[in-house]
């Protein structure tokens, strides 16, 4: 099938309040979100949905649907992110989490890692005072306090390097972020990849808290409570990079197998928590054990957390992640103790 994807940046500019706009014409915000991130491929979407979105954006279907264009992935060398929800270069990443689930640690780690790769990091501070941001500011190149300064500094940085721009949801609600992204379209600069977070944690209760996104990182309270960091949900987190035509087919195949295993493992784990391990049918024990090992493997020591954990940060190239995950899926690690897989780099 021809490589098709939704023109997310166009939707973001034309329909900033997409949640209410989608509801007003009978579309489910979750469906729109899944189309934007690629969780629902364009080829499997309903024609009426695409026509309705084109109507909202006041554009043609040819403008709404991009053909033959690839999405470049930013490899972070964080196993669970690169496997399940890769960053689309030049796109927008939305972090969905409540306070205390580790989103700022993940964000700080992204800043640290991407700076090593030559990216410039810019942070637009929210209006309210948020002392928790102090933990990540050390890894930021430029901090600004207004959207005007953000535009000015992004253009300056973007003349020389790729830029990581970060802002709180408060700037999304005012519409400032959409205007900024639209203005940057007219500038001759290198790609700007945007991270959006919500320091209040209200995004968890909304369908499209940031509008259209290329990448969604959905944090998981159960993983955080059990200290399985990074606590990014491998089932609900997704990315437009994962559309088959944009991705190495081996990656897509392993990612889908891993998600299937983890989805069933989570169901079985709920049963074990209530009734004990003996409640699992013997035919499901293999699934449970492999899911347990895969979940352990997806934990990872971070560089920015070294002073607190005493563990040296680890980077794992995507090819190694895929190789290791396949070994776990195929049962090669079935006899290994789970502790061997906890907070390691590659196998």
Give the oligomer, counting copies of the same chain as homo and different chains as hetero: single chain
> Would you tell me the structural class of the helices and strands?
alpha/beta
Largest sheet: 7 strands, mixed
Low-confidence parts lasting 5 or more residues at pLDDT below 50? Answer: none
What is CATH's topology name of the largest domain?
Answer: Cobalt-precorrin-4 Transmethylase, domain 1
Helix and strand sequence: EHHHHHEEHEEHEHEHEHHEEHEHHHH
Specify the number of helices: 16
CATH architecture of the largest domain: 3-Layer(aba) Sandwich
Quote the beta fraction: 5-15%
* Mean pLDDT metric: 91
Organism: Pseudoneobacillus rhizosphaerae
Subcellular location: Membrane
Family: Belongs to the ATPase alpha/beta chains family.
GO molecular function: ATP binding; proton-transporting ATP synthase activity, rotational mechanism
Nutshell version of this structure?
It is found in: Membrane. Keywords: ATP synthesis, ATP-binding, CF(1), Ion transport, Membrane, Nucleotide-binding, Translocase, Transport. The chain is of the alpha/beta class.
């Amino acid at each position: 099938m021809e490589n098709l994807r939704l023109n997310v940046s166009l939707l973001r500019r034309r329909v900033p309040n997409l949640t209410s706009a989608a509801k007003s014409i009978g579309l489910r915000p979750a469906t729109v979100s899944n189309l934007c991130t690629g969780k629902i491929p364009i080829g499997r979407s309903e024609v009426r949905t695409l026509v309705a979105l084109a109507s909202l954006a006041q554009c043609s279907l040819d403008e709404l649907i991009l053909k033959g264009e690839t999405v470049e992935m930013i490899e972070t060398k964080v196993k669970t992110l690169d496997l399940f929800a890769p960053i689309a270069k030049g796109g927008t990443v939305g972090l969905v989490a409540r306070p205390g689930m580790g989103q700022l640690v993940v964000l700080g780690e992204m800043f640290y890692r991407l700076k090593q790769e030559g990216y410039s990091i810019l942070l637009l501070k929210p209006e309210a005072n948020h002392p928790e941001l102090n933990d990540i500011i050390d890894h930021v190149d430029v901090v600004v306090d207004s959207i005007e300064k953000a535009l000015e500094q992004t253009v300056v940085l973007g003349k020389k390097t790729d830029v990581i721009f970060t802002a709180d949801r408060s700037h999304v609600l005012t519409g400032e972020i959409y205007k900024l992204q639209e203005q940057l379209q007219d500038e001759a600069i290198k790609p700007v990849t945007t991270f959006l977070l919500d320091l209040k944690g209200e995004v968890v209760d909304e369908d499209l808290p940031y509008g259209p996104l290329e990448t969604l990182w959905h944090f998981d309270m159960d993983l955080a409570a059990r200290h399985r960091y990074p606590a990014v949900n491998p089932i609900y987190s997704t990315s437009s990079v994962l559309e088959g035509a944009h991705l190495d087919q081996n990656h897509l195949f392993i990612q889908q197998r891993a998600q299937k295993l983890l989805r069933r493992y989570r169901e079985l784990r709920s049963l074990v928590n209530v009734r004990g391990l003996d409640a699992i049918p013997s035919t499901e024990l293999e699934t449970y054990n492999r899911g347990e090992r895969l979940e352990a493997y997806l934990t990872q020591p971070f560089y920015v957390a070294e002073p607190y954990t005493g563990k040296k940060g680890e980077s794992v190239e995507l090819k190694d992640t895929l190789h290791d995950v396949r070994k776990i899926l195929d049962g090669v690690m079935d006899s290994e103790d789970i502790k061997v897989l906890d907070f390691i780099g590659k196998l």
